[in-house]
Amino acid sequence: MTPALETRELTIRFGGHVAVDAVSCAFFPGQLTAIVGPNGAGKTTYFNLMSGQLRASSGAVLVRGRDITGLDAPRRARLGLGRAFQLTNLFPALSVLENVRLACQARAGVHYEMTRPWMARRDILAAAHATLARVGLEGRAGSAVSALSHGDQRKLEVAMMMALEPDILMFDEPTAGMSVDEVPVVLDLIAQLKRDASKTILLVEHKMDVVRSLADRIIVLHNGKLMADGPPAEVIASPLVREAYLGAAA
Q1: If 0-12 CB within 10 Å is exposed, 13-18 middle and 19+ buried, where does residue 197 land?
Q2: Structural domains of the chain, ranges and CATH numbers in brackets
Q3: What are 182-197's pLDDT values in tens digits?
């Protein structure tokens, strides 16, 4: 089976520091892979290289066998690669509905037309409302993003990614900064997406209870290198991983 997403010897250097060091890994549809490791291990940098926020020093990124190493982030998104960031990446001055509507427009390839206001596109509005309903934000459609709680902003970012209908979904610490009450809602959204066997999901997460509940596979990065890759029980049970990277009590 051709991987949905693959990296080959992917490397990035910042001066004399190698932040991601020749990481080769393949990710497949129907699988949620958790990427774990200590702070500074290179997890978010690896994400940034795959999604196009950073340009690799060497190595390659492939989507469904196509080399996309030279493509920028917007062009990678159009190939079905969706990314939710550790810090929310929204339009705070716009309403909740307008944020998702913009994502739906982008997915449909609809551009601004002076002769046809976007409010006339009932199909796009319907898609935006349906997406908000899926994440439990339909009741906040008219609210400004700046008025939302942090947890609701994270849900909105997931909604925007869902509206783009990517085949590959990348979540960078989706529960960061959330209250205990807010976390289950976002985890349930990811669990729903995971039920679709056509989706490939990558998750950077520090909370091992979250990793255990969602992951089909764990890869461990340390000092930018891939040091472990396998089923959760096997990786978590590894003495080296437990003691050095997940904590002896993990």
Answers
A1: exposed
A2: 1-80+168-250 (3.40.50.300), 88-165 (no CATH)
A3: 788 888 889 989 999 9
